[in-house]
């Protein structure tokens, strides 16, 4: 990497293939994903350093850890994380943390996919880690990536967006609807060479950079989004919250409850959350349900008092930082056009309940990276980039809905003075609270939301008419239905089936269904189609899982075509259908033609049995 920190204008590049506005988690991840595919990029980031006193996101879920694994960064993040997974995996609701009045109300086990040892639903389990630590790991990786230039001390002011065709189903007035083109305008999702990006430094100096693709990863006040004329739509919570980072030498030894990654304190006067930042003396707290005006004038002394009320003891509290905020439920009506795209908070603002916001941002970047790389390499078709918003916007909408629902049941909603009482009144109140808190399960046991999203309506997948598991935020049913995430399995040699996936597309075939023939011979039509169009594809035979389950049972088909982002594009048995599906998945054609020419022979009984066997539900 070339790091240009507060560089003078003459050191800035004049032309780039990909310019990323914003060097937070989604922008840095996108640059690294592109670099892994041979695509150089320039990241413009105003901050010259990462502020460790603003932890914000703390939950890296199993899906994001698997994305990081793909880039070789999962182990680095776990090593840097101040809280190992073995320390604690639970979220506990309680009346306080210390003394005889600290009653445990309900505990959610293995929250946020925190599972020590080998994890089943993905090759990686979740990890609790503050966002600044994650950013430092990504910056370190960027420093070793020769195809990434990180330019700090500068920000994007404006993007000269060429008029053309909108993405994600939203047409610019006077232009074509998605899937068509008006003479003289861009095909949906294509880059407009030489898009002008105006960048500026803190001194007000400006420079214009020409870019083939521009990515707005610049947060909720995105300059790139403003340049597109797109406004976030939605609402905000009625009350605010206050994040407090503090140090306390006494708190750890004073806690009388079992270890937890989060303690939710249901207090009559002060309610919220407390958790360790590390295994030393650094902690975080979120005071919930605070008046916005009061939050804006909070002093450190006020914050320390709130922390003591929350934990229930006069422990030492050294306030490091406070950060008042209000949960927002905002979503962009479109994710970009004409080679200019929005990712992460620039496209959606999620409430933090459930820890999905940052993880949704990484999901955006992972979806977009391979598509940009394919277009620049020449093998991606005209429909490829137009699918980005079509696929990712529904995921964000679903995530926002679930997080907003959880925001209707915060700690103070369960407050009752009787919860700390002794005797029958206290026991009855705590039993009632235990029952009422069942509503919080989807916030902590959200595997259905984390892994169960699907791109089934995307033009890049070939539907097979099979039943699709119902959406459920808690229950995840592993399915190879086209558009779904490839079901994970540990193989007989204790390696993950994800280890077999190539950089491009991967055709996985159940070895037992090949009749003893080499997989490359059986699926010669796939390799021939890939060679004609220059599409990277790997064909691999797979044996049974380590419990003896044949892959055909797991997939509901003899073979699956897996996209570069680990989602299934097609499943079936006919090599010719797989070859045609490859073209569709690369953005070159329509799935309707394939479905009519190569109808899938689907065994519904087999599917139902498979679903019940591999369904994964975190209790």
pLDDT < 50 runs, ≥5 residues: 165-189, 599-619
Q: Please indicate the percent range of residues in DSSP E strands (runs of 2 or more).
A: 15-25%
Structural class: alpha/beta
The tally of beta strands, per DSSP, is 25
Q: How many helical elements?
A: 19
Distance between the first and last residues' Cα: 44 Å
Question: Rg to the nearest angstrom?
Answer: 25 Å
Query: So what's the overall shape?
Result: globular
Residues in helix, %: 25-40%
Average per-residue pLDDT, rounded, comes to 89
User: Major beta sheet, specifics?
Assistant: 9 strands, mixed
Write the layout of secondary structure elements.
Layout: E1 2-5, E2 15-21, H1 25-36, E3 41-45, E4 59-60, H2 62-70, H3 74-80, E5 91-94, E6 104-108, E7 127-128, H4 131-143, E8 148-152, E9 154-160, E10 195-201, E11 206-216, H5 223-228, E12 233-236, E13 240-247, H6 251-254, E14 262-265, E15 272-276, E16 282-290, H7 292-296, H8 300-311, E17 318-325, E18 328-331, E19 336-337, E20 340-342, E21 348-349, H9 357-377, H10 387-406, H11 423-436, H12 441-444, H13 447-451, E22 505-510, H14 519-522, H15 524-533, E23 537-542, H16 551-555, E24 559-562, E25 568-572, H17 575-585, H18 591-597, H19 604-614
Parallel strand pairs: 1-8, 2-3, 2-11, 3-8, 5-14, 11-20, 22-23
Antiparallel strand pairs: 4-7, 5-6, 9-10, 10-11, 12-18, 13-16, 13-17, 14-15, 15-16, 18-21, 19-20, 22-24, 24-25
Helix pairs in contact: 1-4, 1-9, 9-10, 15-17, 17-18
